[in-house]
Amino acid sequence: MLTEEQIYGIYVPVVTPFNTAGEIDLESYQRYVNNIIKNSIHGLVVNGTTGESPTVNIQELQTLVNTSRELLKSSSIPLVIGTGTNDTASTVARTEMAANSGADAVLVVVPYYSRPSQQGIIEHFRKAAEVGIPVMAYDIPGRAGVGMTIDTARTILEMNNVVGLKDCSGSPLLVSELSRLGSKPVLCGDDLHFFEMLGCGAAGGMLASANVHTAKYLGIYEQFRNGKIEEARAEFDRLIPLMKLLFKESNPAPIKWLLNAYGEISSDTLRLPMTPISSELREELGAYLAG
Ligand SMILES: O=C(O)C1=N[C@H](C(=O)O)C[C@H](O)C1
């Protein structure tokens, strides 16, 4: 079970590879996740936004949890499963399934689309936390349509079983305030602002872009922690051009294209309503690969 003390460093949210028929491609998944976990990452995140969680059904999620547990059997890397949906009952059902299948924690997003009140958001997290498995709360107003206020985040973080927060709020305010108040750990989920967020008190990052150059992200984190701020910054700056391309169109389409180009997964297929990247971005990523 994931503890607060284990929430630091680089958590990698993996993609869910699909074959051209749109079915989960487990062979690619095993090969690619194995390569990711060869790096000493601090956490593996399955079925996050990067894993296209809104289009993965609970049976498929069960398969992903079982496969990931097996891949991690001789590893101490924590396994975090995205179980949050826009419906509290289905979030609880997925959270129970993950808890019963050996997950170390679940990632629960602010319920999207319905635009609940702050009280509704709190009650949603209370139900998820009552399942008993550690919960990492996930604030991402740009996708959810609604975000946590600082007070709401504090209330949720005070709940038993809620162990930390993934912050994609798009501003350093939340992490700065939570860190000032000595709250539970926060991981930055906003790749381009990772370095800045470390400076504001984030304990690490949950970064889709760390699917490639994983070791460099680990190095940046270690250097930052060891006070080698300038070296960390210089390395981070070198990664920014690629990061910008990876978020130029909706995640995970660019990262899937790149992972396919690197031969890590066999297809860049996405499930609708997600569509492949534009020909312009393909050219730009192609030029990055060639350079
Ligand atoms: O998969 C995730 O979880 C992440 N989601 C963010 C998003 O897609 O908006 C980005 C972050 O790098 C990881």
From TrEMBL:
Active site: which residues? Y138, K166
Q: Which UniProt keywords apply?
A: Amino-acid biosynthesis, Cytoplasm, Diaminopimelate biosynthesis, Lyase, Lysine biosynthesis, Schiff base
Any idea where this protein resides? Answer: Cytoplasm
The record's annotation in InterPro entries points to: Aldolase_TIM, DapA, DapA-like, Schiff_base-form_aldolases_AS, Schiff_base-form_aldolases_CS
- What pathway does this protein act in? Amino-acid biosynthesis; L-lysine biosynthesis via DAP pathway; (S)-tetrahydrodipicolinate from L-aspartate: step 3/4
Mostly located where? cytoplasm
Enzyme class, first EC level, given as a word: lyase
Reactions catalysed, as given in the entry? L-aspartate 4-semialdehyde + pyruvate = (2S,4S)-4-hydroxy-2,3,4,5-tetrahydrodipicolinate + H2O + H(+)
Site note Part of a proton relay during catalysis, residues? T49, Y113
Q: What is its EC number?
A: 4.3.3.7
Pfam families linked: DHDPS
SMART domains per UniProt: DHDPS (SM01130)
Quaternary structure, per UniProt, is: Homotetramer; dimer of dimers.
NCBIfam families attached to this UniProt entry: dapA
Q: What's this chain's function?
A: Catalyzes the condensation of (S)-aspartate-beta-semialdehyde [(S)-ASA] and pyruvate to 4-hydroxy-tetrahydrodipicolinate (HTPA).
HAMAP family attached to this UniProt entry: DapA (MF_00418)
The Swiss-Prot or TrEMBL record describes its family as follows: Belongs to the DapA family.
Q: Which PANTHER family match?
A: 4-HYDROXY-2-OXOGLUTARATE ALDOLASE, MITOCHONDRIAL, DIHYDRODIPICOLINATE SYNTHASE
User: Under what name is this protein listed?
Assistant: 4-hydroxy-tetrahydrodipicolinate synthase
Query: What would be the name of the gene that encodes this protein?
Result: dapA
